[in-house]
Write a structure and sequence with these properties.
Strand order of the largest sheet: 1-2-3-4
Largest sheet: 4 strands, parallel
Order of helices and strands: EHEHEHHHEHHHHH
Oligomer: single chain
Distance between the termini: 27 Å
Number of helices: 10
Number of strands: 4
Shape: globular
């Protein structure tokens, strides 16, 4: 059984969750936002959910101020190297969920995705939710130049490859039923 820490959780609550869950023999996974990955790993989190739970914490402060920093980020920077080393040392798993990152930022406006036959397998109620989810979330769903979105996704793939090559244990997850992440088929897409 696993306990999940969600993005809005801060370090104090996150540490308490990790301590209590471990005391009860449970694993802890985290979708980070307000709890820095470096601290969560040091505190003993077992798994980081989504590549952004790593990526968002390897952006040097001087680079973060630049509006288009994600697609151009140098992943050999000291913050990234140190976090990867910490993940390896603590044997912290990472579940990149690249399929959801791809479908949310890279191709949600692609006709072959919007009208994919797999979408018909998803309940209508969920498809109706997809239509309102991305605009409400603030995700760049088809916003911004496609080449810029491709560079961002390529960086997520590059970081995932770096984690793998360093020996960080990777898991396969999809975050279904995110937009155009149909349960079932998305697992095969993530494995790809």
């Amino acid at each position: 059984t696993t306990v999940k820490i969600y993005a809005g959780t801060g370090p104090d609550v996150g540490q308490a969750i990790i301590d209590e869950a471990h005391r009860r023999g449970l694993l802890v996974t985290a979708h980070l936002g307000g709890y820095p990955a470096q601290q969560a790993v040091a505190d003993g989190v077992d798994c980081l959910e989504h590549i952004i739970s790593v990526f968002d914490f390897v952006i040097p402060p001087e680079t973060a101020a630049q509006p288009k920093h994600r697609g151009d980020l140098d992943l050999t920077n000291p913050l990234c190297t140190a976090l990867i080393n910490d993940l390896v040392e603590h044997k912290t798993f990472v579940d990149p969920t690249l399929v959801v990152m791809r479908n949310m930022i890279l191709i949600p406006d692609a006709e072959e995705v919007v009208h994919s036959p797999e979408n018909a397998l998803v309940p209508q109620r969920l498809r109706d939710f997809w239509a309102i989810y991305l605009p409400r979330s603030g995700c760049p769903q088809g916003g911004g130049p496609l080449d810029e979105r491709r560079r961002v996704f390529a960086k997520y793939q590059e970081l995932t490859c770096m984690l793998y090559r360093a020996g960080v244990p990777l898991l396969v997850g999809t975050d279904a039923p995110e937009r155009h992440v149909a349960p079932g088929v998305s697992l095969h897409q993530e494995l790809e």
